[in-house]
Amino acid sequence: MKMISYNSISEFHKENNFSPPENPLFSIIHTQMKESETSKCEEEKSESISMTNNFYSISLKNIISGEIVYGRTKYDCTNGTLLFTAPNQTMVFKNMVFSSEAFHIAFHKDYLNGSPLFDKIKKYHFFNYHVNEALHLSPKEEKLMKSLFKNIETEYHNNQDEFSKEIILSHLETLLKYADRYYKRQFLDRKQINQTLHTRFKNILNEYFATQQLEEKGIPTVDWLAKQLGVSHRYMSDTIKAETGKTAVDQINLYLIEESKNLLLAPNTSISETAYKLGFEYPQYFSRLFKKKTGISPKEYIESAGMN
C-alpha cells in the first residue's frame, strides 16, 4: 500500500502536479479530465493509497467505481458524493475511478483566523463523519453546490486584494450552510436507517447492562458506542438527535435512570449499591442526575413507591 501524508497545501499541489496555490493556506482545484485520461486512471486503479492531510478538505466528485476505507468502515463509491475531512484524518482509497469533473477545496485552520468561521466550523460535525456517512446530492443539489464551488474558484483566481479572503470565506460559509441543510434532508430520507441505528444503540446498552459491564467498566462513552455501531461518534449523535430529539448522552442518561428505578426498589439494596451497579464512580453523581431527570431524589422515589 502506498502511504501519503501531506503536511501542507503547497505539498499537496506539488505532489499531484497542480499549479502552486494562490494562497499557501487555501486552494481550490477544478479538474476536467478527458476520456483518455479517465481510461488511464482506470488501468492504474489497482494500487491502494493511504492518505492523511494536515488541513481541511471538501471534495465534490462523481466516483464511477472503487472503495474508500475509513477507520472500521468501508464506503462503496457508486454515486456522486460530497466528502468532508478534518485535519489528520486518514483514508484508504482502493481501485478508485473518478468521472471527468471534480472540485476540491483545501484550507488550513489558520486561514480562518480572525473570521467568524473560525468558531462556527466546529458546529459542522460532518467534517468528522466517516466516509460511509458522506453526503449524497440530488441532481438539483449538485447543480447548486457546483455553482458555489465555481464562485469560490472565480474569486480565488482573481488578483488577490484586501477583499479576496472575506469574499472567499463568505462563499465557503454559504457552501457549508447548504451542506448542513442537505445533511438534515439526508437524515430524513434515511429515517428507516436512523431508526435501525437507534434500535442497535439501545440493544448495545441492554447487552452492556445485562453482562454487568456497567459495574465492571463504568458508563460507556459515546465514542465506545459509536465504535460498536461502526460509525463516527458525531454521526451517531446527530442521527439519534434527528430521530429522538435528544443527544446520545441524553439517551445514555435516560437509560441509566430507567434501569435505576427498578434497582432502587430491590430488597436490601442501598442507593450507593445502585449507583455502583450502574457504573457511577461516586453515588452523589447518580443522585444528582436522578433528581435532574425525575424531579425527585432517589430516596424520595423509594419512599413514594412504598406509599403506593
From TrEMBL:
Domain named HTH araC/xylS-type: which ranges? 199-304
What's one GO MF term for it? Answer: DNA-binding transcription factor activity
The reply to whether DNA damage figures as a keyword in the UniProt entry is no
Name the SMART domains for this protein. Answer: HTH_ARAC
Which keywords are on file for this protein? DNA-binding, Transcription, Transcription regulation
Which InterPro entries does the record cross-reference, listed alphabetically? Homeodomain-like_sf, HTH_AraC, Tscrpt_reg_AraC-type_HTH
Q: Give the domain of life.
A: Bacteria
- Which PANTHER family does the UniProt record give? ARAC-FAMILY TRANSCRIPTIONAL REGULATOR, TRANSCRIPTIONAL REGULATORY PROTEIN
Its name, as the record gives it, is AraC-like DNA-binding protein
